[in-house]
Amino acid sequence: MGLPQPTTRFSAEDYLAWELEQPSRHEFFHGEVFAMVGASRRHVTVAVNLVSALDQALEDTPCRAYMSDMQLQARPDEAYFYPDVLVTCDPDDHRAERLVRAPILVIEVISPSTASFDRGEKFAAYRRIRSLREFVLVDPERRSIELFRRADDDVWELRDIAPDQPLELTSLDVEIPVGRIFRNLD
Fold this sequence. Notes:
Layout: H1 12-20, E1 26-29, E2 32-35, H2 41-57, E3 64-67, E4 71-75, E5 79-81, E6 85-88, H3 91-95, E7 99-100, E8 103-109, H4 115-127, E9 134-139, E10 144-152, E11 155-161, E12 167-169, E13 174-176, H5 178-181
Parallel strand pairs: 4-7, 8-9
Antiparallel strand pairs: 1-2, 1-5, 3-6, 4-5, 6-8, 9-10, 10-11, 12-13
């Protein structure tokens, strides 16, 4: 998440209309608007590796992977984000031009400036999305992966993915080798 814009608090409706007119992307969280800052090469490389692997694995399924230009409605009046990678199997989401409402998987590639927000308030907002089954945090600097999986409506289990184990996404019946996720970082 970027820096808060100091001037105006928005309603969600005003934010969505305003965002359509902007040349750059902004996230919305409880009335505040945050400009999205540019991503590092490592960040982009990991996101591309993930969406590429997911796109291939999801071929001939009703599910599709999307990158960071698709906006996610985490809470209708409270939170709209641009996750690095998301997967939805919802036909309405596939017809939407920019706003996804029913993801099964959300992946955030973290950086030192976003890690605490991604793990804290953003994940708290994501947990309220009923369709969401798995949430993944990928740290390209540490080459670490944390997988949060919904065990039931209110319980999420954390799994640290070992470097020699694949990222197993049970919600999609997909495994991605860790080496593929961190490919081309050096």
